[in-house]
Amino acid sequence: xxxxxxxxxxxxxxxxxxxxxxxxxxxxxxxxxxxxxxxxxxxxxxxxxxxxxxxxxxxxxxxxxxxxxxxxxxxxxxxxxxxxxxxxxxxxxxxxxxxxxxxxxxxxxxxxxxxxxxxxxxxxxxxxxxxxxxxxxxxxxxxxxxxxxxxxxxxxxxxxxxxxxxxxxxxxxxxxxxxxxxxxxxxxxxxxxxxxxxxxxxxxxxxxxxxxxxxxxxxxxxxxxxxxxxxxxxxxxxxxxxxxxxxxxxxxxxxxxxxxxxxxxxxxxxxxxxxxxxxxxxxxxxxxxxxxxxxxxxxxxxxxxxxxxxxxxxxxxxxxxxxxxxxxxxxxxxxxxxxxxxxxxxxxxxxxxxxxxxxxxxxxxxxxxxxxxxxxxxxxxxxxxxxxxxxxxxxxxxxxxxxxxxxxxxxxxxxxxxxxxxxxxxxxxxxxxxxxxxxxxxxxxxxxxxxxxxxxxxxxxxxxxxxxxxxxxxxxxxxxxxxxxxxxxxxxxxxxxxxxxxxxxxxxxxxxxxxxxxxxxxxxxxxxxxxxxxxxxxxxxxxxxxxxxxxxxxxxxxxxxxxx
Length: 564
Ligand code: ADP
Ligand code: TZD
Ligand code: MG
Known about the structure:
Rossmann fold; 6-stranded parallel β-sheet; binds adenosine-5'-diphosphate; binds ligand TZD
């Protein structure tokens, strides 16, 4: 038989990726996907090999958030697949488009549960955790399979898609001409979803009647990249805005209409709130209760119709993609002008200036050892001098205090624990953001948070990425000075090693280490890390006795009988 015009499933799959403009894969290889990764690299795809699939998945997810194209994560069967699945689920929960591609074992053996190497019914395991899960069994279906995965990941509310590539598919053969002819790029995979004119008018009327309007920007707004129109709507109407964590920087945090420093006041008083790509989930106390004005009414811009009324009644839903919706809202202002009152703005400004002064005092106070705010005072000076920095942030106190203390100035530059408050996303996000943007990344991480994915510093060093990691080392989860209730002197459940020298880790891989104990040392080390463009790790010694249990969300812990 003449094999000269035959190709195989692996090559067809890579051709399909390239045809769709996908040029990067994050993954961990092994049976049966090693050659897939090799050929991908050979054929022009950038391949980033990780130390753990969860971090590779997180890199793919953040690439999706930053680019509106699905990030790609490649995993091996069963255990590798499961390691990646946490990241896929997290991407879906946060609305980030990504595709996890995994090799899988022999279908016939899996289905009869006869014990194949790394046997698992992966497609069905993935379903509850993904937006969708598909399996490609035949080489002639590769183009359609990938098109389905891409379209599902980026249309409507974005999310994670699982794509199962069987061992048989990867090793299957097909005529190259037939395969080439099967390739295609899906037409308009993320179509505009234009809201009804009626819904726009209803929303503008409600906002126009408001005495104390407020706009809440969420990461859906950041994702939509409708930056100019969102700014125009806010600046034309003078409505104060509150950014959710990953929407910080959509308009700069020091914008005169930014109400972040008056968060409690605006939530308690606003009578009409317009949600732009933000869900009324736990992060907004479900839109009800003591943090909210009981008479508040809502406008909600969202692409997902099922999100409307999810927690409370929405008086003016605007269902559509945010780009289209906000464009129509801006256009509608000509006929239905909206202007926030100067009284409302003055009330907010008064509260803001008190709170900004309080924060400035905390940041300026020099404690020894440093507390979180003393350290953040130093970080703030450096970030304010590098306004285009990407900031990755996780931890509990480290997360909450950094979010409140550090201003962001550019859209989609703050990447953090997100909707699930998950630890361990940091290294994957930092690597994904560095690869995608080519810009310097600063990561402010709790010592516990860092431990979940710390070995990826080898990945950072291997690829020489411009990532500076600052570990707020307070020797524990929340704080390092708890004692064990048994009184036996074992480390308590929250205790980690306060004497740990995380900086020594990066030395092993040739990166630049710093160990700092004062604000000046921290400032110098951080500034050097950023300008060097080299992998840098700063162990920042923080007082183990200053953290708050669970950071700012202590109230979510169940109470014990002792009320502890
Ligand atoms: P945050 O955590 O910042 O409050 P969420 O993740 O809770 O944000 O909410 C984001 C919302 O944005 C989701 O309900 C999602 O459906 C919506 N969304 C995402 N992308 C778009 C888009 N392009 N257009 C409209 N809505 C979007
Ligand atoms: N596991 C995962 C995957 N996510 C989580 N959120 C947790 C466990 C529980 N958890 C938190 O919610 S915060 C946190 C854990 C373990 C770590 C806090 O310690 P840290 O930060 O050192 O990162 P601070 O600054 O000491 O508070
Ligand atoms: Mg800690």
